[in-house]
Amino acid sequence: xxxxxxxPDAHWELRLRAGIPVEVQNRFDGTWSRGxxxxxxxxxxxxxxxxxxxxxxxxxxxxxxxxxxDRVRPQR
Length: 76
What we know:
Elements: H1 12-15, E1 21-25, E2 32-42, E3 51-56, E4 62-67, E5 72-74
Antiparallel strand pairs: 1-2, 1-5, 2-3, 3-4
């Protein structure tokens, strides 16, 4: 099996906004999980790659940890 690392397209950053369905990468084993949406972008405004606050779609719970942008990708 070949694993292809996801590289966001050039327009992904422009579409990065609250409500977008996303997959979140598990920091322990690198797998991607569906069923999340961006709740809000966080940062001081100077970062070209903001972090995200993530909401679990199934129950609407906002996760307590802020997720770095490189651990979030558009839902496939």
